[in-house]
Design brief:
The chain has 161 residues and is α+β, with helices and mostly antiparallel strands. The chain is 18% helix and 26% strand. A hairpin with a 6-residue loop joins strand 4 and strand 5 (100-104).
């Protein structure tokens, strides 16, 4: 009898638990404007980044515009243009002088301001979503003027009746 009660309780509570687990627990407001503007890419891999693509679909994609004109050498930074909801794909050599390797973010990073940094490692990424996170990271070279002087364009929201 007690097992039936436990199973019944699990069945009743499961939808409540599932529903709560889907909530946004990041503490960020869900009504914020979509950010479009510059962010900083910091290459902490052992290899030159030969291309950086931003795109709206998941999975590797190099069909869009390459955001860089010159390779980003290890421990160097470059400013790219960002649009909220974009994935990032990078291309680098798999080994020195070897085949090319493409890496893509698993989900779109949640950047919402210019003072954001995407760190690229040999086999992954890390998103620093504000100046405090970036400046608190050992070895961070700082933000260039293009980032610190950026002022987002005001957006117009539809007015209700």
């Amino acid at each position: 009898m007690k097992y039936r009660m436990a199973i019944l309780l699990m069945l009743v509570c499961n939808p409540l638990i599932q529903g709560c687990s889907q909530d946004d627990l990041t503490g960020k407001p869900t009504t914020q404007d979509d950010y479009v503007g510059p962010i900083l890419v910091w290459n902490l891999s052992q290899f030159d980044l030969l291309a950086v693509y931003t795109h709206g679909e998941g999975g590797f994609n190099n069909n869009g515009t390459n955001q860089i004109d010159l390779a980003i050498e290890p421990d160097q930074t470059r400013v790219i243009q960002w649009s909220q909801g974009s994935y990032v794909s990078v291309v680098r050599e798999k080994t020195q002088g070897g085949f090319m390797l493409g890496l893509t973010t698993q989900t779109p990073p949640t950047f919402n301001q210019a003072q954001s940094v995407l760190i690229v490692f040999d086999d992954g990424f890390r998103a620093l979503v504000n100046a405090s996170d970036a400046n608190g990271t050992p070895g961070f070279p700082g933000f260039p003027d293009e980032i610190t002087s950026f002022s987002p364009q005001p957006t117009t929201e539809p007015q209700g009746d």
